[in-house]
Structures are given as structure tokens and as C-alpha cells.
Design brief:
- The protein is mainly alpha-helical and 314 residues long.
- It has one domain.
- Helix content is 68%, strand content 0%.
- The radius of gyration is 21 Å and the shape is globular.
Amino acid sequence: MREEFLIERKETDVYNYISGRVKVLETMLFTRETFEHFSTLSMEELRRELIDTSYKEFIKSNELLDQAIFQRFYSDIIDMEKYVSKGFINAFFKNKEIFLKIKKWVLSPNAIETIPLYMELRRFAEEGSGDFPIEFHESYMKMLLFKENPLKVAMALDIYRLKYLVNNATLTGSDLIRQYYSTYTEFELQNIFYRLKGFMDSRLVKEKDLLEILSTVFEVLPSSEFSRKAVGIKNMEQFREFVLESGERSDLVLKRSLIKILEKGKFINIGLEVIFVYLKRLEFEVETLSMLISGKKMQMSKDEILERVSVSYA
């Protein structure tokens, strides 16, 4: 497997230095109380307070505040690439970017790539010959098959991305990371089905399209509990009944479930899991900050902002 996508778990003692450093970085992450406090501040007050945190070197002005917080996240990712495999970072923290590239090649076949890695990845996606994760080729071929229907293309992307995450989580050999993505997949599949029902009710998806998407789910994620429960659906009415019985799970419920799994990392003092837990918690923090800033720009109230950002930190 190419270095950029190789999942490599090193001997535990290799992580001695970075694990200690990460434990220090974790103490700088914001708490629920911090976010509640931030919600009461003006944009200028928020900027001044963030300047006293680990975001300070990235903040230039209020207008660029939302960009600054993501720059901090990307900076930490680049820093962690010195201590873990590139494949680990690409798999769990850059996977959307990669799959969106593949979608672009399907929908815009005349698009030009100049970066050597993406040029080679594109050839693999199209031809299946090379040393890349097989999900990239499989997803390309399925999206190509669905090309005339953008909704089906988007669904295929989401389904194959879940397979990619689950398979890479298994390759880490970490029970915590496997549990994280198993939980994530079940929630995401349920949400995919709920969105699919909405498209069906709006007449944007016909029964033939529905059955093709379901067939893709059963083929790509046969081990998923939610997928197994849905096997046997043969028409729209059965699908509608299944989705209504399953209900919709909010992003807040998903985030709380994932954070509960990450909390188990408190008892792991060294190893790959320490880095994974920190970066995921930082990712949640940055996403929450971004939504908070967006709410302030829209002049939402404190209560509206707290509801919108779904603060769920312990």
C-alpha cells in the first residue's frame, strides 16, 4: 500500500514522547462551561478571549475568525503526521476531501489535476490498477453508474466512505477506534435512510432508484446491524415503514455517543488511541466553535446559539 494510505500501528514505546505531549494538549481543550461562556460574548470579546488560547497565532481579525480556528486544526494534524503514518491521518481526518475529489472526477470528467498524488489516484479510481485502497475504485465505478442522478451519486459516496472508515478502523487494531466507527456507521446509515425517505416523499427518487441504493448498502456494508435489519425491503412502502419505525437520530445524539467512546481514551496513556482521541476531540471543538461564530454573525441569542451548536462536552 502506498505510504499516503498505509495504516501502520507502531510499537507502543514509539508513542512515548507524543503521548505525553498530547495529554498536555488535551488540558487546553474547551469544556462545556467554556462554550456556554463564549455564547454570552460579542464577536470582539470572543476574539480577545481566543487570543489567550492555543488559537492565538492564527487569529488576525473577526472577519477571518472562522478560518483561523480551522487553520489551528490543520496545523495540529500536520504536526501529528510526524508521529503517525500518513495513512492514519488521511483515513480518519482527510477522507471527505479524498472522496469529494473522486466525486468531482465522476461529474466533471474534463477537470484537470496537477498534483502528482491526485493524478495517480485518479488513474486508480478509473482503472483499478495501482496500490491504493480498493474503496476509491469501487466508489468511482458506482458513482459513474449513478452519474445521471446526482442524489444517487451523493448516496454512493457516503456509503463507500463508511466502508473505507470501517475497514481502516479494523486495520489499526484498536478496539476503541473500531467501536468509534462502528457506532458512527450505524448512525450515519440511519440518517442516510431518513434522507432517502425525504427524497422519496418529494418524488426526487423513484422506486427503481431506491432499490438500487438499498442494494448498494447491502452489498457494501453487509455487516452493519442497520443494514441487516433492512434486508428484504422490496418496495417504497416497506422502506417508508422501516424508516418511520427506526426514527431519526440527531447529530447531537451521535456526537454524545461518539464523545462517550472517546472518554474511554482517558484510561489509555500511550499509543495510537491517544492521538486519535485528541484529534477527534479537537475536531469537535473546532466544528462547535465554527457554528458558534456563525450563530453570532447571524445575531442569534445565547439560547439559540447553544441549541444550534449542540454543546455536549462533559
